[in-house]
Amino acid sequence: MKLEYNGSEQVPLSKPAVWEFINDPQKVASCLPDVQQVTVHDPKNFDALVSIGLGPVRGKFKFKITLEPQEGGNRMNVRISGGGFGSVVDLLAGADLKDNGDNTTTLDWSGAATMRGPIATVGGRVLDSQAQKLIAGTFANVKTRMAGQ
Amino acid sequence: MTDIAQGSPEIVTEQPAKFAMGKSMKRKEDPRFLQGKGNYIDDINLKGQLYMALVHSPYPHANIRGIDSSEAMKIPGAVAVVTSKELNAYNVGWLPTFHGLDKQMVLADGKVLYQYQEVAAVYAETREAAYDMIELVEVDYEPLEVVNNPFKAMKDDVLLRPDREAKTNHIYNWNVGDQGATDAALATSDHVVKQHVVFPRVHAAPLEPCGCIAEFDVMGRLQFYVTSQAPHVYRTALFLVLGIPEDKIRVISPDLGGGFGNKVPVYPGYVCAIAGALVLQRPVKWIETRTENLTSSFARDYHMDIEIGATKEGKLTALKVNTVADHGAFDAAADPSKYPAGMFGIVSGSYDFPVAYANLDAYFTNKQPGGVAYRCSFRVTEASYLIERAMDIVADELKMDPTELRRKNFIQKEQFPYKSPLNFTYDSGDYEHTMDVALEKIGYKQLLEEQAEKRARGELMGIGISTFTEVTGAGPSKHFDILGIKMFDGAEIRIHPSGSGIIRTGTKSQGQGHETTWAQIVAEELGLDPQNFLVEEGDTDTAPYGLGTYASRSTPVAGGALALAARKIREKARKIAAHVLEVSEHDLEWKDYAFHVMGAPGKTITMKEVAFAAYTNPGDNEPGLEATLYYDPPNMVFPHGTYVAVVDVDRDTGETKVRRFLAVDDAGTIINPMIVEGQIHGGLTEGFAIAFMQEIAYDEAGNNLATNFTDYLIPTSLESPHWETAATCTPSPHHPIGAKSVGESPNVGSPAAFVNAVIDALSPLGVRHIDMPLTREKVWAAIRTAENAVAAD
What we know:
A: Alpha-D-Glucose-1,6-Bisphosphate, Chain A, domain 4, B: alpha+beta, 18 helices, 32 strands, disordered N terminus
């Protein structure tokens, strides 16, 4: 089961400030909804334990997250893989940063997730909207946290 | 003579009345089942047993970079984690498949080839601890490109099985018949009808999943309790895989909650339980979950192209079938060695095709392994569905009534034994008679009139016919074997001094009622009371060797063995009777279920009296009264039937209502009409599910989308139609009691009747075919597409 998402957020911060924020694993991880625990290995690799509830599939998913900042500071790719109770999720997300010239930044993001195991079947009926909520929630949190800085 | 019939026979048979056979005797096994006191695998618990659970792969195709069980071993009660590394060290990492054409991984060895493949086995003090452990076994996967259908597989861009010598995803080609003559006949036929037909991947889904308990007793002997339809085959397979001598293996198959073919293969869980019991020196219990059951094997998944030639008058001229078979990750079909595509050659059905040709290619994909026979004798359902579906399409094209096309082309009863163009010798049958009985009983003429009126009003009513022929009862040793063992069956009968007795066979009932029907066969042959026979199956220490119960082979093979063993007893009894009556045995006649002195009316002795004499007054004869006999059938048996479905399709919603369904079966001699009727009801319900609601579908990423009963639907009594049944009787000329088989007929014959009925209902709209399952979404879409096409014209 492959799902694709995209969206756009307007962040009231300068592009360099946004770039700095999204290069900080601790800060990025704290934006994941329902995050329980974050273990940072190095500036680009961290693990996050997240509570998931998809229909009858409920529990904690362990994700390995890798930040892949692209040359030039205009794009950040994020690889997320992991899962729990026999299910796995592989997600490749990316965000393009656009300086709006008025001390705000546009974050155009997109993501493609491949789900395997019980979440793809049992949770399949509610998966799409839940995954949408999770990803949109993450980027909305990014905006909120940054705005609060 | 006491009347032993207790039930009321619903099926009115054409066969003559007998003493014990042909009667609806109540099932002797039912008192324990009806009280909830059956002894199923999960009812068995051994002292000190460990519980095993399996780690499954979420990936359909991936390399395994590493397995870390350290966290799992921290769970309280954790005992061990086993992976392919440990199994390989004992040389049991791979299993041969039953037909010997492939081998399969016990636990993923270096890579996984399908989603839910077994990757590691965990052992714990409690079931709960075992399931907690599997959550914590960390497997590092490297995902690989997924091949989710055989058409992608045949390109060989991604090689799935580098372990095999042939570097291709193609497993085998099988063909039968005369290709040249068939092509020539098709080229000169007035009409050639072509259709692509898919029989989707489905699952037998017995309500009791598989399971086992393995124990090495104090003498080092393996006591293996397992849900097996073929206990002796398991014993020999365990010898071949593990190298344990057969005298050191006891396989016990307890009460089974359904099998339908699912309990024929040897599954990885069994090997892991035995390996755990051996190494840990504790009994190990493993009970499959529903998801494990649904994802470990499958049936069908045939993509078939059929071509039928016919004259203007509707006489069939040729049949050509080309099939692409999706066998999943391992070719684990439990087919006989010489029949990799099973009995698919029955695809010429009940019809007298002058020439025919069938070709099949099988491929590996990243799907669950198998291709087990689901309630049919190895691929008979696919074949019967195809020909019966195609006959309706031919009739439609020729603007003939489907019953008339069939009548015109039936193999005639005087043609038997009939050599089919695809190499079977049909033993007997009377297809036209069975169809006539069905058409009369269903009121075919009136239904056609009703349909014409409804069509005039725009209503969608359909009548579907299936006049199938099966090939069952594998089988004659010159053709059939599993792991090299010929497919005969043994029977042992011991008569006690009081005239009661014990019957043992190498078969294994999963609900078929052998404890009753076996007693009826023996009682019929010996004139003894069937209530007084104990029937024992499933324990390899006591039962004579036999290949088990599947492929509708129990009555054709073991049933024959029982009748002949009983006759052997009768011959010995004749000597003892002669001694008791002080006459020559040649003066004795077996008549009306007793020995009579010819020419001396009133001078008789019953078998019960002879039994007592065998232990008290045998004279010069060997004392006792028992026999063991192995029966190697001379041919297969060919049951047939006519099924008629009447449906109403809701034009707005696509909902199909099966208004009536009639099954007229010809299973030859019937042993117990009530049990036969029960088997037909069960098989029709399964056929109904296959036709309308079941499919193990995979998405593009290789996810199995039918892993539980919310996605893989099982009809309850609420969804199931009312079943009407009847029987005709054409006894098998070569079987000792003239019996054929019936357990699989309803599953084989009914899907085509259902689909033919729905397509018949939609035919005024121009719909020619829809592949199963005929869900309301599919039917609705077909109606809308057809209506839009009409509107566009």
